[in-house]
Amino acid sequence: MKILVCYDGSEPSVRALEKAHQLTSDCGIHEVTLVHSYEENYWISTSADGYAPTPESLERLKDLEKRKIDEKKEDMSEKAKMFEDTNASVDIRIAQGYPAKVITKIAEEGGYDMIIIGNRGLGGLRKVVLGSVSNAVIQGTNVSVLVVK
Q1: pLDDT tier at 23, thresholds 50, 70, 90
Q2: Rounded Cα–Cα distance for residues 105 and 102 (Å)
Q3: Residue range(s) defining the domain that contains residue 111
């Protein structure tokens, strides 16, 4: 069995990792992939209208993005160590794009049996305004999804 675990460093995603570890230990899962996706301009947001980036500022943004990706890879590598006591192989993927689309595409193309994702618990108007990655994943895939609270 192959599982895809969504990880962004948030507390709900840590709980998703913990649940994945439990399932891997208890259910004989042999392959685990930790995935983090980010949208363009995820690392930096600019609020100035009419902002025209200079070549120097674009280079700084590229450098910042590379550093942030390296930091995320290091963090995910540390989290992957929790699976060392299982027989599962663990892979790490970081991809750019809208998280729900990236997650569903990786899950379906990779032949995963299950997606495990944390739920941020947004409710009411916040959920309507901000949307929900976990909900979009559920609606956008044929792969089974476990949402961890």
Answers
A1: very high
A2: 5
A3: 2-42+54-148
pLDDT digits (tens, 9 = 90+) for 90-121: 999 999 999 999 999 999 999 999 999 998 75
Position 130 scores a pLDDT of: 40
Please check whether residue 47 lies inside any domain of the structure: no
Q: Is residue 31 part of a domain?
A: yes
List of residues 6+ apart from 17 with CB closer than 8 A: 5, 7, 34, 79, 82
Which residues have C-beta within 8 Å of that of residue 106, sequence separation ≥ 6? Answer: 4, 33, 35, 93, 95, 112
Number of other CB atoms surrounding residue 112 within 10 Å: 23
**CB environment 37-51: b (16+ within 10 A), e (fewer):** bbeeeebeeeeeeee
Q: What is the CATH number of the domain that holds 37?
A: 3.40.50.620
Asked whether 135 and 118 are in contact (CB, 8 A), the reply is: no
State how many domains the chain has.
Answer: 1
Do the beta carbons of residue 117 and residue 16 sit within 8 Å?
yes
